[in-house]
Every structure is written in structure tokens, then in C-alpha cells.
């Protein structure tokens, strides 16, 4: 196993009825003047907003509200929020929503303490060293942003959907997770979240790291858990136990537990997807359901034994040689994505064949991608072709 340091300071408060604890969590740490950041209105429809307002008022916490963070969040919104933080001298950010709101909060928290444009940390010319403290209330399970330092934002006028170079200061201080608030989540978003959680697990699983028994056993069980409970939720979207399972497994997928001792993930598929989101504003999970099987088809020959193991342990594929099992494992995951209603071809999201070159240019803007196999621009083009 590779050497590693495991550090994750986020306090997680999980379960039904926990959101009302937010005010006390903030006030016990003396945070008195916060930015209350959220998306495009779901929290007003499901009661989360009212619960938060009551809790903030009871604990005498002043707040400035900013709504309108959109899925595939954009830099202009981050700039607007940074200006608010500076103008009102806000000391904390409360992000309520999914990855888009929480990722924005991390960029805003860093931007509020930085004199230049926080996009510098996305270009990689600076690394974030300080941030306003971030508290989150998670309303959709997918990204793991509630318990990691990642932030992905789009610079709209340059079609760049890129991750920020963050540091430990970007970990949320407290994340509250109530599975009940996902009862009304549109089924397409449940599916996107399930795919994203699986994709995160697979990024580590297939990165070519040797000697990962404990990571593999965790990962395979986690993927089986996502498969089992996403199927239950398709039939019964308000099933609290399945919402709980999916919520926690999505957090564990990207909080450092299964990545410890690995090379840190492959991530080519995620970057291929981010280019799709940058051009077509496609939901992240939907883009991953298209790109992951295509990436697997392109690289599996470089890691046959691992792909065969995946098929055996996740889907019970025991027939044939390792090569046969590896190929069948790819079809098994693709079939699962289809079964739950995720798109699996670029044509499903109306991408034109003429755009594949521009997608490959975009995905390779920062250089070659991937760990198990280094992928140059023309490799990426071939993967987009396989996804077409
Ligand atoms: O804006 P509102 O009205 O709240 O609606 C949202 C949004 O339209 C809705 N929603 C959320 N909770 C709901 C709800 N609707 C009803 N009931 C609820 N309880 O769901 C929609 C999608 O929200 P979003 O935050 O965009 O989803 P997700 O959590 O999947 O985040 C995706 C973003 O995170 C990035 C993705 O690239 C994408 O930009 N990622 C972040 C990562 C990280 N921080 O670690 C890693 C990922 O790989 C990913 O790149
Ligand atoms: Zn993801």
C-alpha cells in the first residue's frame, strides 16, 4: 500500500430532524454574521429554508441571503457572493444544497480572503491556504462535497469547468445530512447522484494502484450498496432507509477513506465529463453515465485483472477468462446505468458528432489525463467517439 496521511476534520450530523441544530452549531463556535447560500428554490418547497431561518433566529445569528446558485455553478455567481462577504464583513458561509452550492461556497470562502480573482486557484497559479469557515446542509447525495475540499466551478466565457486547487481550510466544519429532505428529489437527480457516487468509487478502484485489498473490499461493497438502494428508490422514492444508505455511501465515496493508500484516483473520466458540462450544461451524473463505460472500453486492456475482479465481485460474473469477465463487467455497469434511466450515449444528450473534436480540445486543455493509462488529446477523442 502507498504511504498516506488521512485527515478529515468535518463533523457530520446525520439523520431525520437534524437540520434544526445548525444555529447552535454556528453559535457555539461564535460565528455571528454569515452568508446563507442556496440554489434555485428547492429548499423553500421542502421546508428546509424555514427550519434554517428559525434556527438562525433562535440563536441570534445575523445572515445575508444569496440564492440562485445553479447546477454546474458559475464563476460570476462566486464573484457576486465574494463581493457580498467583503461588503458585509461576513465571517462564515452556510451552504445549503448539493455539490453546486457547496462547491461555490468553497470558492467564495477562499475568495473572500483573497485580494485577487479566486479563479487563480482554478488556473493553479495559487493554492488556497485560507478560507472563511464553511458549514453545509446537504440536500442531495452525489458529490461528497459535504466532507471533502473539492470545488468545481465553470468560467462561463471560456468554457472551463475546472477544479480549484484547495487545501485543508476548505473542509466543511460541520455538515448536516437529513435523508428525509430528499423525499421530493426528482428521480433524475437521484439517478445522477447514484451514478456520481459509483463513478467516484471507480476512479480510485481503477487507478492502477497495487495492493489495495481493503480499499477494494470497501469499494465493491459500496457500489453494490448504491446499486441496491438506487433500484429501491426508483420504485419507492420516499424510502427513508434507502435514502439514508445512499446518502452515507455517497459521502464515503469521496471523503478520503477509500482513496487512502491509492495513487489518488484516475480522474480522466471526470475531466471528460466536465467538458460535456461546460459545453452542454449536462448534469454531472448524466455525463458520467455516458463517459465511464466509454473510458472503460478504451483502457480495460491495461488493467484486465482488475476489471475482471470488478465484474466478479460487483456483478457476480464468474464465467470465462479474465478478458471475457473484464468486457462483461463493462457491459454490466452500462446496463445498470440504462436500467435506472441514465443516458449512456452522447446522442442521448443531443451532442453532435461534429463537436467531438472540440470536446477533446477542451478536455486536454490542461494536458494529458489519467493514471492507469496516460491519455493524450487523440486518446480522449477516441473515447468521445466510443461514447457516441
Ligand atoms: O437549486 P435547487 O432548487 O436547490 O435544485 C437542485 C438542483 O437543481 C436540486 N435539488 C437539490 N436538493 C434537492 C433538490 N431538488 C429537490 N429536493 C431536494 N432535496 O438538484 C439539482 C442538482 O443540484 P446540484 O447541487 O447541481 O447536484 P450535485 O450535488 O450532483 O452537484 C453537482 C456539481 O458538483 C460537482 C459537479 O461537477 C457539479 O458541478 N462535483 C463536485 C465534486 C466535489 N465537490 O467533490 C466532485 C464531483 O465529481 C463533481 O465534479
Ligand atoms: Zn463526480
What do these coordinates show?
The structure is a single chain. Strands 1-8-5-4-2-3 form a six-stranded parallel sheet, with helices on both faces. The chain has 15 helices and eight strands. The chain is of the alpha/beta class and 388 residues long. A hairpin with a 4-residue loop joins β6 (152-155) and β7 (160-163). The chain has two domains: 11-182, Rossmann fold; 187-387, Dehydroquinate synthase-like, alpha domain, CATH 1.20.1090. α7 packs parallel to α11 (284-299), α8 crosses α12 (304-315) and α14 packs across α15 (377-387).
What's this, in brief?
The chain folds into 2 domains: 11-182, Rossmann fold; 187-387, Dehydroquinate synthase-like, alpha domain (Up-down Bundle). It is built from 15 helices and 8 strands.
Structure keywords:
binds zinc ion, 10% strand, binds 5,6-dihydroxy-NADP, alpha/beta, Rossmann fold, six-stranded parallel sheet, 388 residues, Dehydroquinate synthase-like, alpha domain
Task: Compile the SSE list and pairings.
Blueprint: E1 11-14, H1 22-28, E2 33-38, H2 42-45, H3 48-58, E3 62-66, H4 75-88, E4 92-97, H5 99-111, H6 119-123, E5 134-138, E6 152-155, E7 160-163, E8 174-177, H7 187-205, H8 213-235, H9 240-253, H10 268-280, H11 284-299, H12 304-315, H13 322-339, H14 356-363, H15 377-387
Parallel strand pairs: 1-8, 2-3, 2-4, 4-5, 5-8
Antiparallel strand pairs: 6-7
Helix pairs in contact: 4-5, 7-8, 7-9, 7-11, 8-9, 8-12, 10-11, 10-14, 11-13, 11-15, 12-13, 14-15
Q: Got a strand count?
A: 8
CATH class of the largest domain: Mainly Alpha
- The total of helices stands at 15
Give the percentage of residues in beta strands: 5-15%
CATH topology (fold) name of the largest domain: Dehydroquinate synthase-like, alpha domain
List SSEs in N-to-C order. Answer: EHEHHEHEHHEEEEHHHHHHHHH
Strand order of the largest sheet: 1-8-5-4-2-3
Distance between the termini: 37 Å
**CATH-defined superfamily of the largest domain:** Dehydroquinate synthase-like - alpha domain
- The residue ranges in which pLDDT falls below 50 over 5 or more consecutive positions are none
